[in-house]
Every structure is written in structure tokens, then in C-alpha cells.
Request: fold
Amino acid sequence: MAGVLGLLAAALVVALGVSQAGAVLLGVLGWLVALAARLPVLASAGRLHDARRRETILAAASGTTDEVVRLALVVAVVGGFGPALWAGFGWALAELVFLAATQLTRFGWPIGERAVEQLKAQGGFVGTHPVHSGVRGVAATSFSIGATLLLVAGPWWVVATAFVHAAVNVAFARWAGRRLVSVELFGAVVGVGLVVAGLFGTGLS
Reply:
């Protein structure tokens, strides 16, 4: 992990410059902390026999946990529009890379028809068409950037970001298998709405 972060840091410094790259890496580290913070809930919910209930609890708890960690990140080290923008991007980058890696490593290449059907049933990141991953990427990136901007505008916005994050996660957990397109569009609309709210909140719309 340290080696991967080192290579990422070097690439970002070359591409973006030191200050922006530092903010992106803070976002990446924030997401990793949020991922670790979910483990106690994951361990507790894993004992439930009802899979639907277990997934709903995990989805709601992970959304809330993410926003608490994001708030701590903003309060501790992120301030101002530019750093918030890049930190939100770094958070989304870490999330998307993790989702892609965990989904793709389940299957050999090329992905067979059975694997595609399983991904479709799970509402997976890859989906059955490249448009799915594109919409999911837009949703995750806009959500992370918008939520980070809102928390810079005012820490009290964590109540709203936690609520909508949990709602989006629960929607994916419960309905993505049957209504993948609708759920992904819902996530994208919420993400774009957060970006607009964040721009207004920071006075830079």
C-alpha cells in the first residue's frame, strides 16, 4: 500500500503540482480511513442471517461513517475551495479504483456471459454496458466533490450529506439488481445536486 501511494503521489505531483496533489492524496487517505472505520459495523452486521437486512444496515452505516470521516478531514486539514475540490476528487478516485478492482478480480478475462449476468444481478460497478460505469463514476465523483465543498461551507451540513449518502447507498443495495439504470441516475442527480449546493455554499457558483 505504501508503494502504491508513493507512485500515486509522484504521478499527481507531476500532473497537478505539489499543492493540488497533496489535497488529492488527503482525499485518498480520508477514504481509506473511512473504509477502515466501517469494519466494526461490517463485523456486527455479518452475523445477521437476513441478507437484505444486512446489506441495508451496511449501506446506511457506511454512508454515515464516510461523512463523519469526511467532516473530520475537512475540519482538520482541508480549507478553502481549491483544496476541497481536489480532496473530493481524491476521495472519489480511491473509491472508484477500489470498486473496479474488487469487482474485476472476481472474474477471469474476457468476462464471460455468466459473470456478466452475476454483475447485472448485483448491480455491479462494471454492469453490462460501459455507460453504467460512466454514470457511476460521475455520481461518485460529483458526490464526493459536492459533499466536501458543503462541509467546507459549514460543518453542520454533515447532517444533510450523511442522510443523502445513506439514502444513495441503500438505494444501490436494495434496488440496483432490478432497477440499475434508475438507481444510477438517482445517484448521479444527487451528486450533481450536491456540487451545485456546494458551489452556492462556498459562494463560488
